UniProtKB/TrEMBL annotation, chain A:
GO terms for biological process: transmembrane transport. The chain crosses the membrane at residues 21-49, 79-104, 116-137, 157-180, 201-222, 254-274. Belongs to the binding-protein-dependent transport system permease family. CysTW subfamily. Residues 80-275 form the ABC transmembrane type-1 domain. GO terms for cellular component: plasma membrane. It is found in: Cell membrane. The keyword Transmembrane applies. This is ABC transporter permease. Keywords: Cell membrane, Membrane, Transmembrane, Transmembrane helix, Transport. It comes from Streptacidiphilus pinicola. It is a multi-pass membrane protein. CDD domains: TM_PBP2. InterPro entries: MetI-like, MetI-like_sf. Gene3D superfamilies: MetI-like.
Length: 284, 377
């Protein structure tokens, strides 16, 4: 029987799963390795170079002065700790806001209002980042809406936490919403059936089951906050975060900027390892 | 309050042979027959929007019995179970447990436990933690908790599985964990929502006899929801047959099978022949609806006279269906209508049975096996 080349190719691919996988994944894998891991490698490499103080030219001399500088200079330490504190604060605020919101959306609201709420939560994602940050600048400024309603904290760390919490909230709500929606009714019924009151069911059954989603959301809010440098410029007053230090070093001292940007990367890697370990502990 | 209720209830059912007189009708009391009603439903209806899932159900379940609620899907049997458990509140009517009105009580204040259709095990807890959950919630001391959990796991033959995750268990094992998790609380009533539905046939038969044995030994009232009539007939002390949100008949398996009250029961519980109208008038001598079970019908050579206590109807075999152990003969009657007669393949093999197609026969069955049906309202 005659078979067309396309059919023969399809047949060959069907018989060899390895070949199929190679054909499918080689392009995206190449992109990942070259563009993503490659740039990270260059970043790490350049952190070990140095800059000529007079000419601001990068000198390709292998040394660890940049890292020694970060560890010894109290300014870097303060900025790093402040950045970490803001990222933790944003994550806690978003978690506290998103848990009841996602619970209500997924398990209480009727289908119609559920759709409206989903749109409402995701709508800010469609607007530009700067628009939203400046909107908060307007609200937080003296004489602004917030000042008029409850009083404004002014521009500074609290303003940064508020604005970043607003910006990253959808990234916390959406995974939690999916997790709450997937909770089987029968598991909640079973808990009540075994004598647990609602609060006990929430603590012992609901929270452990949505924990992976909570952690997933917190990875977003935490890492996005660590890397941010625009919001803090707009509503942070004189506050500096690691992103600002990197941005100001980039033109004058590229290796130093590279070394500083290793700090949030390390913090995120540390956080990922930490949540992986707690997950492992829970599953023992 | 629930703890108090538990002590009373266990006194009634288990130890002293001493009966609390509650929910017992005054007529029975006067006769001196004390039957304890563990679950009493009075005029219970449940509407979901415009749909009446349960429509005016009255039900009395006796202490210590294996009570099945049998019906097709959507007949309201699971909703009734959920009303007893407290997951739903009835639109009208009351639910009593051991004589106490619990209609408005939430599930966590009721002395019943449920085995769910999908098992509903907690995926983040080990088998042991699942079984201990109810005891932990009730703050049972650790030593007692551990020994009771071990005992419950032993009852369902899962001693070695305490530290496994539910995800690492087969369907049958999960089913046993769900059972142990409910039994460990020593409820006065155990509710089972099609617990064997997801198991394959062999495992299902095994679990049927095990469940029955556990029920006998623990002397717990079992309320068992199923759509499988064989399961209901073989396991139950009494069966309630549900249809369209109502109960068509309540009785022992033999009563429900041998004396079906309505055409629905006759058709749903086992297979049945319906004899009605002109055919009934010609064969039985009166109009009306009657049911005859296929296995009660004898197939005789043409011209044979029936015995004195029998009804006879001549006809012709229209089709023969060979089914291994039995053969079904579909017979067109001279009086009109078609009856199915069932015969064990004791003396004939399949080929021989199939050769009877087209033959003239006389069907005969005992008059007492003709059951008059009342039309359900």
């Amino acid at each position: 029987m005659h078979r067309s080349p396309v059919r023969r190719l399809a047949g060959a691919l069907h018989r060899r799963p390895g070949l199929r996988l190679t054909a499918l994944l080689s392009a995206p894998m190449a992109w990942l390795v070259l563009a993503y891991l490659g740039s990270l490698g260059v970043l790490l490499l350049s952190a070990f170079w140095t800059t000529n103080d007079f000419t601001s030219q990068v000198e390709y001399v292998w040394n660890t002065d940049n890292f020694a500088n970060i560890l010894s200079d109290p300014v870097y330490r303060t900025v790093a700790l402040r950045t970490l504190g803001i990222a933790v604060g944003v994550t806690v605020v978003d978690g506290a806001l998103a848990l009841p919101m996602a619970f209500y959306m997924a398990r209480v609201a009727r289908p119609r209002s559920r759709r409206l709420l989903l749109v409402a939560v995701t709508a800010p994602l469609w607007a530009g980042y700067l628009v939203k940050a400046y909107a908060w600048w307007v609200m937080l400024s003296h004489g602004g809406v917030l000042d008029w309603a409850v009083g404004t904290p002014g521009f500074g760390v609290p303003a940064v936490v508020i604005t970043l919490s607003y910006l990253w909230l959808p990234y916390m709500v959406l995974p939690l919403y999916a997790a709450f929606a997937q909770l089987p009714d029968s598991v909640l019924d079973a808990s009540a059936d075994l004598g647990a009151r609602p609060w006990r069911t929430f603590r012992s059954v609901v929270l452990p089951l949505v924990k992976p989603a909570l952690i997933a959301g917190s990875i977003f809010t935490f890492s996005l906050s660590l890397g941010d440098y625009l919001t803090v410029q707009i509503v942070g007053g004189t506050t500096q975060m690691l992103g600002n230090v990197i941005a100001s070093d980039v033109t004058l001292n590229l290796p130093m900027a590279a070394a500083v940007s290793c700090v949030p990367v390390l913090l995120i890697v540390g956080y990922l390892l930490a949540v992986r370990r707690t997950g492992a502990w829970e599953n023992l | 309050m629930p703890g108090q209720m538990r002590t009373v209830a266990s006194t009634i059912t288990n130890e002293n042979g001493f009966y609390l007189v509650s929910g017992v009708s005054s007529a029975r009391r006067m006769l001196g027959i004390y039957v304890v009603m563990t679950v009493t439903l009075s005029g219970v209806s449940k509407k979901f929007g415009a749909v009446r899932a349960v429509d005016g159900v009255d039900l009395e379940i006796r202490s210590g019995e294996f009570f099945s609620m049998l019906g097709p899907s959507g007949s309201g049997k699971t909703t009734v179970l959920r009303l007893i458990a407290g997951f739903e509140e009835p639109t009208t009517g009351t639910v009593q447990l051991a004589g106490r009105d619990v209609t408005r009580l939430p599930p966590f204040d009721r002395d019943v436990n449920t085995v769910f259709q999908d098992y509903a095990l907690f995926p983040h807890l080990s088998v042991r933690q699942n079984v201990e959950y109810g005891l932990r919630v009730k703050r049972v001391a650790k030593a007692e908790r551990i020994s009771r959990a071990e005992q419950a796991l032993a009852t369902v033959h899962l001693e070695g599985f305490a530290n496994r995750s539910p995800a690492a268990l087969s369907g049958g094992q999960r089913q046993r964990v769900a059972l142990a998790r409910a039994l460990v609380n020593r409820p006065s009533v155990l509710l089972l929502d099609e617990p064997l539905g997801a198991l394959d046939l062999k495992l299902r038969l095994e679990m049927q006899s095990e469940l029955k044995q556990i029920q006998r030994e623990a002397r717990i009232t079992f309320v068992f929801v199923t759509h499988d009539q064989d399961e209901a007939l073989t396991m139950s002390d009494r069966v309630a047959v549900f249809n369209a949100g109502r109960i068509e008949q309540v009785g022992t398996p033999a009563e429900v099978y041998e004396r079906p009250a309505t055409p629905f029961v006759a058709g749903f519980v086992g297979t049945s022949n319906l004899v009605e109208g002109e055919t009934a008038a010609k064969i039985l001598g009166s109009h009306g609806s009657y049911s005859v079970r296929p296995e009660k019908i004898r197939i005789l050579p043409p011209g044979t006279a029936a015995r004195g206590d029998e009804v006879a109807a001549p006809g012709r075999i229209a089709d023969v269906v060979y089914a291994g152990a039995q053969t079904r003969f579909l017979v067109d009657l001279e009086a009109g209508g078609r009856l199915t007669a069932l015969r064990q393949n004791r003396d004939e093999d399949g080929d021989e049975a199939l050769r009877h197609r087209g033959a003239g026969v006389v069907l005969a069955w005992r008059r007492t096996h003709t059951v008059e049906l009342t039309q359900a309202n």
